[in-house]
Amino acid sequence: MTFISYIIIAQIPQDIPHQSEPVDFTQWPNILFYLVLPVLMVVFYYFYFRKKTKK
Fold this sequence. Notes:
It is built from two helices and no strands.
Protein backbone atom coordinates (compact mmCIF):
# COMPACT_ATOMS: atom_id res chain seq x y z
CA MET A 1 0.00 0.00 0.00
CA THR A 2 2.80 2.41 0.80
CA PHE A 3 4.44 1.57 -2.52
CA ILE A 4 1.31 2.72 -4.36
CA SER A 5 1.22 5.97 -2.40
CA TYR A 6 4.87 6.63 -3.34
CA ILE A 7 4.00 6.12 -7.01
CA ILE A 8 1.07 8.51 -6.77
CA ILE A 9 3.16 11.14 -5.03
CA ALA A 10 5.93 10.70 -7.60
CA GLN A 11 3.41 11.48 -10.37
CA ILE A 12 2.61 14.98 -9.06
CA PRO A 13 4.76 17.61 -10.82
CA GLN A 14 6.37 19.95 -8.31
CA ASP A 15 7.91 22.66 -10.51
CA ILE A 16 4.99 23.26 -12.86
CA PRO A 17 2.38 25.77 -11.71
CA HIS A 18 -1.15 24.47 -12.00
CA GLN A 19 -4.46 26.23 -12.26
CA SER A 20 -6.80 25.19 -9.51
CA GLU A 21 -9.56 27.66 -10.33
CA PRO A 22 -12.56 26.84 -12.51
CA VAL A 23 -12.54 28.03 -16.10
CA ASP A 24 -13.90 31.54 -16.51
CA PHE A 25 -16.37 31.47 -19.42
CA THR A 26 -16.86 35.22 -19.42
CA GLN A 27 -13.67 35.68 -21.45
CA TRP A 28 -13.71 35.01 -25.20
CA PRO A 29 -10.43 33.06 -25.44
CA ASN A 30 -11.69 30.57 -22.86
CA ILE A 31 -14.98 30.14 -24.70
CA LEU A 32 -13.19 29.56 -27.99
CA PHE A 33 -10.61 27.18 -26.61
CA TYR A 34 -12.81 25.08 -24.31
CA LEU A 35 -16.15 25.10 -26.14
CA VAL A 36 -16.01 26.15 -29.78
CA LEU A 37 -12.81 24.41 -30.89
CA PRO A 38 -13.68 20.96 -29.47
CA VAL A 39 -17.15 21.11 -31.05
CA LEU A 40 -15.67 22.12 -34.41
CA MET A 41 -13.13 19.33 -34.22
CA VAL A 42 -15.85 16.75 -33.60
CA VAL A 43 -17.99 18.11 -36.43
CA PHE A 44 -15.09 18.14 -38.91
CA TYR A 45 -14.06 14.65 -37.81
CA TYR A 46 -17.58 13.37 -38.37
CA PHE A 47 -17.89 14.90 -41.85
CA TYR A 48 -14.39 13.83 -42.86
CA PHE A 49 -14.97 10.17 -42.07
CA ARG A 50 -18.50 10.25 -43.42
CA LYS A 51 -17.12 11.52 -46.72
CA LYS A 52 -14.28 9.00 -46.60
CA THR A 53 -16.60 6.00 -46.09
CA LYS A 54 -18.82 6.98 -49.05
CA LYS A 55 -15.95 6.44 -51.49
